[in-house]
Amino acid sequence: MARIESGIPSLVLTLLGLLAYGSIVLNREMFLLLSLNVFLLQAVFFLLDKRKSFLLLAVYLFLLCFYYVWKAFTIPADLRPQGQWIVEQLVFSLTTIAGWLLSKTVRQWMDETENLRLKLKELGKVDEKFDVFTFQEFVEKAKMLFHGALRRNERLISLIVALPAELDDYKLNVSFEKLCETWKQCVRSYYDVVGMLDNRRLIILLSNAQPETVERVVDRFYRKWNGGFPVEIRYQEWNFKDWESVERELTIWKGEKTSQS
């Protein structure tokens, strides 16, 4: 993946360099034709799969070669600008090849990015329905934040947010989806973590937080929350000295489901 990403800028520079060279050695009409040719073909190459786009590239190069051979046979020898024709054919061929390579590299990068996204979902890192971290992935994210906070001597504060236990299954499902969406709007996406404890409880970890930070976040939540009933919110500052203590506490919180249900 990294090799593909690093190859894209060099291909872009190559294509732009060839176009710049074409603007110097070709007349205005031929350069406009070259630009149109490259960008139209690149769009077609991008839409086709690799085998079909390569076949189209080969056909194009063959027809380009045939065109200049045909010109050589139909124009008198004393009127043939052989040097200019060679330059034109070379520029058209190389820019088309560079455009094909660029379109296929971008397409491969997009496909691999999508495959990676699907694999992450398959691994259960993000709950597909509620779009928040699963408990297992929350633990992994919390571990990174915990070690970073220890190094920087920062505070971590966790919130456990619970829906009323008496909700029926349908209302619980709808309300929990709304709860997840509301909390995602209330926290900082790059600094805080929202995860699932179970199907009615969220756990939220606020990084570099102060007690007043919690108050602001909770106030923001209540201004946005329109679920029609109150939710239980309790918070705890993380004064743990090692990750093993955090894991034990998280396991206890996770297991509270049976005692509260």
UniProtKB/TrEMBL annotation:
<keyword id="KW-0812">Transmembrane</keyword>
<feature type="transmembrane region" description="Helical">
    <location>
        <begin position="55"/>
        <end position="73"/>
    </location>
</feature>
<feature type="transmembrane region" description="Helical">
    <location>
        <begin position="85"/>
        <end position="102"/>
    </location>
</feature>
<feature type="transmembrane region" description="Helical">
    <location>
        <begin position="30"/>
        <end position="48"/>
    </location>
</feature>
<feature type="transmembrane region" description="Helical">
    <location>
        <begin position="7"/>
        <end position="24"/>
    </location>
</feature>
<protein>
    <recommendedName>
        <fullName>GGDEF domain-containing protein</fullName>
    </recommendedName>
</protein>
<keyword id="KW-1133">Transmembrane helix</keyword>
<keyword id="KW-0472">Membrane</keyword>
